[in-house]
Automatic annotation (TrEMBL), chains A, B, C, D:
Keywords: Signal. InterPro entries: DUF5001 (IPR032165), PHP_domain (IPR052018), Pol/His_phosphatase_N (IPR003141), Pol/histidinol_Pase-like (IPR016195). The lineage of its organism: Bacteria, Pseudomonadati, Bacteroidota, Flavobacteriia, Flavobacteriales. GO terms for molecular function: 5'-3' DNA exonuclease activity; 5'-3' RNA exonuclease activity. It comes from the Bacteria. The keyword Signal applies. This is PHP domain-containing protein. Residues 1-19 form the signal peptide. Gene3D superfamilies: Metal-dependent hydrolases. SUPFAM superfamilies: PHP domain-like (SSF89550). It comes from Maribacter hydrothermalis.
Length: 372, 372, 372, 372
């Protein structure tokens, strides 16, 4: 009898519980700092419910997103794949969106209207988001679906292009279909992270064809079962938006201002990934140890991701290994052997788990003025 | 892309994870020993899905039940309360059952066909389980619904009779409606535990009117959110059945052979609760400490519930407090001061968290022959 | 090289770590509220170091006590049992005290000067605390040792009187020696809890002979290994002192104002245990649930012990079991069915794990005025 | 009263507890596989007790080592720094060794006889292990102490050469003293890891002067407080010995067959570190995913250290990030996109947290024959 109330209240309880999690786990509520000029918005734009081949009502997706501290989600039901059609014979393909919108009304979560255009290879699966009406996008011919999406000013991205069910080598194959869509400005993004899978070949395609880099959960079941209870976070696209609004997210996606995040894996164009990492590590204090030339620097990882760094400064560390993990939310000290006392030094860390291109990890610099 | 597969596989992974939980928590997979003459079957016969006012597809309920190690569940959709009717306009009220049956096919879980007959007070909510067809039970007049359920040989129980929404004092009120149903053999059980709520006045009614004692989750959202992540187990009815079959469960329910379990709270008639507790604590070893008259006894709690005991033996404990918690699955030693070496002694423990009637906790005896 | 510094700093780090422990465990830093007229001081007056048969230097005992949040400790080295005498041939039996005093100087921990007078049965082991000089207490005849302790105005208590090594039945035997000491005002207290052992027969002796009730760790190795890592807290004597000073502790012990605490087991005279429990549970809020006669009361357990209660109010609970565990530091709600709205009600809880006499658990009452 | 027994038994209990630790933590009991031709023995040859400036009796060191699953320890008391001399005026500097030997008698732990020769810079601190008699090593002149150590056939290593108390830049400075000792075959090893500190400049010295690479805890307080409760493991030297004996360890140390280990940091000469890592990762299965050219490989990390790898194979991963952490004891799958089905492939992983020289991480290769 109390169940409904409990259910609605469980969100707040869970936020409290998760904030007390063991320090060595990454935390469930996702968190990233803004970068100069932009807000860093956490989005998951590839999600299913019972209105296509998912297994929960749209309200659960809203609650999951609130638990994960997301800013925006899109319920992208397959237009063409409807295994529950017998039971949910909805003539209006906007229902999932409408229900989520209603559920989110009293919460600080943006619902982006979206749909998944679903075909076999070489067309594959594609998400159209920021649509106005899902119904006319359901078309016999894929080309017509993409044209309609464009007409609605949708942002369209290619889902899991490296999926072995559609590409047995596990590599994405850019067919004429995609080339035409890109040429026609009907395909704008590409998933480099889909669910638990990352393909660096998809990243290569994104860079080569200037497609927006996307990361999504593609969740069908429960976020708890597929991610959280295995110690993982849901994959997201971090969108660098001028303000916290759906329109700004749309503008940012068309402009390619994103990085994809899955746990400690962060993938994006250098111009966004570098400032994100720079903002993520906060220098809290820097002091020379008494009677030494050893500079102790206190750093804080302000993100919800564990980060992996290699010290590539001009100076070696006094005590820790040059390769070290920096846990989500952790404050830690590193000590540089500067050989003489300096008024200013540069700390340079290579972010080993982050990629601006296949096999390319960015190096971030912080200029530090010791206190004494 | 991998999501569906992952989702289907998550069950096994979770069973592994949960078995490694902290020793001081009760474990998620529920477990109770059989009692002489009967199998102890774990059932939850009050569950909702999107087919009434719940929020998940029936397959999730099957997976939750497998994670909880249940033997049988029933999806008891409200016949009269259908908030998702606009989207799920099913003319056949048996759909939820059919989908669960299909999902459970490859698993060792029994699906009991059921429905909830839903009225305001004084009739209240009632579950009819082991029905053949839910459709004819949907009736204008409650009396007719109960009559149809009886025709189908359904076992019917009164849900959350103490619910303050229907009884502002929080006490169950047995109206003429219930009295008539009992007289007509149309009402056979009563929930003494519904979701997180236990009412000892409902237990009093069960005993007075010889109604079968029931405990159910009444879950609408997710078992994980409403129970597991708060450190609780889902409430169940433990059914003492002649064999592991739906027919045997039905026979046992009509015969009143149950106890209701919610975490460390276990409620049932003395004739079933006492043998259950007796079987639950296994005496593994009993030896006199060298050169003393102190008898050390090794006991194992073979259930998934923490149990609370008070030593009421003729002998006091040597070292532990007479009131002690016995964790789920734990092996622990108690030491009795028998004053002289005995060939046989009786260990008597009062089960403080278990009730055979309001405020009445049973005492269990084990006859023990020391090894030396 | 950094080790010493690290070692000294580890205390603060550990306090932070332990405060984040899992909510279902009792916490390491012990905490109990004051009672009307008295401060509740946490003491452990039975401890060993390398200066008798223990295995650590006295400074470790100071650090352990600070981690446990104690107010006072006494290093009570055996005067007569000196297994490390070959290596530590100290002519002055006050060394252990002196070192601890030095170590504690910069910390908020009181060091009580003490020694253990060690004999076989029937005299047994006895601790003399608040002594001035340990050396003259080392005597051939036990009677002389007790006389010297009295001369120094020491508070003397009988250690583990139920120890099966000295009493094979596991029951304490009050010999003429003890009777004489009591008569001569040379024996003032008795351990009812020693290390992990509780003997209710020792409690009976305490009550019969008006001896002060004591609980001690009797630690020889590491508190972490013997208690903490097994999920236990160290046993203590809670002393109700007029102020936070060694003199006040001494006065309170002579006056018998104590309770012994080991995890959830709390043992003491009714006049101290009842006000302690009353202060331990704080009523934070009481409101009637809307449109009902169900009074929801928010309670906080302000102690570091899990407490076990049975509702023995005039009203039954709306939802929870009448027997329930109240975790250390937890805030929880109970709901009373008062049948009509009251301006004032009395909540009565029996503290099942607490004892004022063998098998006697106290009942505590709180008068509550609902807000609406 | 039970305390002593409990203390002695606590070891086994703790081994059980620690084996159930959270899967994401490295485990307390250290474990590494043997390498071809040698046993991998876990040693800590720099430890203090109350017999110099430590704070525990030698038996605690034996118990700590057993909990950590070590094969050998050495209690290396400072010969010249004796802060407890007033209380422990031992004329025989072999006492600590003798007590540990007695304590270890019934356990499978080797006790290496050792001492620390303690001077200020430039001589610094040096451990002599496998000595016969500590007393004659106590000398006014350091040269004489080293000569005596050599006479006893001791293996001598330079402790924490980068310690800022002795070298304010935090860099080790090889003085004429060390050069002479090396030339005279009186100095054989160098700590590159001391307590929580790693200095790659010390590693450079080791390689340049062919000194044996050492890692030690230098523990003075408790392993639990300085390492375990902070989520760290104690630093050790892994010695590759022909058999499990003190003589074999001595032979291996003179021959330079070691790697130093502290958590995920593993430092050693390439000829030992590469086979260690190769043995550490076990290929359990390799199968092509159905209808694909994606080869799934199941790997097991058989060590107690989390390891950090980068995929540098000729093939990219199908799903995981090329940079990944491999937890202690974990079994995980990686999938290679081999583009066509191969009968044999080579998996190449660079061990990012392991060093064979400053900034040089080794790459390990495994030849794998897929099953299908």
């Amino acid at each position: 009898m109390k169940t409904k109330l409990l259910f609605l209240c469980s969100l707040m309880a869970s936020l409290i519980v998760t904030s007390q999690q063991h320090e060595h786990q990454s935390s469930r509520p996702l968190s990233f700092p803004d970068i100069p000029g932009y807000k860093s918005l956490k989005t998951d734009l590839h999600i299913h419910t019972v209105f296509s081949d998912g297994y929960v009502w749209p309200n659960i997706r809203v609650m999951e997103a609130l638990r994960d501290n997301l800013d925006a989600i899109s319920l992208t039901e397959h237009l063409e794949y409807q295994p529950h059609l017998e039971d949910i014979p909805h003539p209006d393909r906007n229902r999932s969106y409408a229900i989520a919108l209603e559920e989110a009304k009293e919460h600080d979560l943006m619902i982006v209207h979206g749909s998944e255009i679903t075909r076999s290879a070489p067309i594959g699966h594609n998400n159209a988001v920021f649509i106005k009406d899902a119904n006319p996008i359901l078309q016999d011919k894929a080309e017509k679906a993409f044209a309609e999406a464009k007409k609605q000013n949708a942002f369209v991205f290619w889902n899991h292009p490296a999926w072995h069910n559609q590409s047995p080598t596990g590599n994405p194959i850019l067919s004429d279909f995609q080339k035409d869509r890109i040429k026609n400005d009907e395909l704008h993004g590409i998933e480099v992270i889909n669910s638990v899978d990352y393909a660096q070949e998809s990243l290569a395609l994104a860079l080569e064809h200037n497609l927006t880099i996307m990361g999504t959960s593609d969740i069908h079941g429960l976020i708890d079962w597929d991610y959280t209870e295995k110690g993982n976070q849901r994959p997201i696209t971090l969108v660098f938006a001028k303000e916290r609004s759906i329109e700004s997210i749309q503008e940012a996606l068309f402009a390619g201002r994103t990085v994809a995040v899955y746990n400690e894996l962060i993938v994006g164009k250098e111009e966004f990934l570098v400032p994100l990492l720079k903002a993520s590590i906060v220098v809290e204090k820097a002091t020379y140890l008494r009677n030494t030339q050893v500079l102790e620097i206190e750093l804080k990882n302000s993100t919800s991701s564990n980060l992996l760094f290699e010290n590539v400064s001009d100076y070696t560390f006094y005590d820790s290994s040059p390769v070290f993990e920096f846990k989500a939310g952790e404050t830690k000290k590193v000590a540089l052997k500067t050989l003489e006392k300096k008024n200013e030094i540069t700390l340079k860390l290579k972010a080993l788990g982050c990629f601006t291109a296949p096999k390319v990890s960015p190096t971030i610099s912080w200029t530090i003025s010791p206190e004494n």
